[in-house]
Amino acid sequence: MQVGRGSPAVMVRMTDEMKAWLKHQAIDNRRSLNAEILHRLEESRKAEEAQHEKRV
Q1: pTM (2 decimals)?
Q2: Considering 14, 22, 42, 47, which has the largest number of Cβ atoms within 10 A of its Cβ?
Q3: What is the b/e burial string over 5-35, where b = at least 16 CB atoms within 10 angstroms of the residue's CB?
């Protein structure tokens, strides 16, 4: 999946504390804030799908 400026934008509301934490995580992982959020969402999705597969 290719994500770039042509991809749909989504506004997400979060606390300043959460944004600051995510920014620090992104820096530590050498990612942009957007890439860090997408990475975490994808990992969460994979984990949830794996849990679902165990139940089926």
Answers
A1: 0.84
A2: 22
A3: eeeeeeeeeeeeeeeeebeeebeeeebeeee
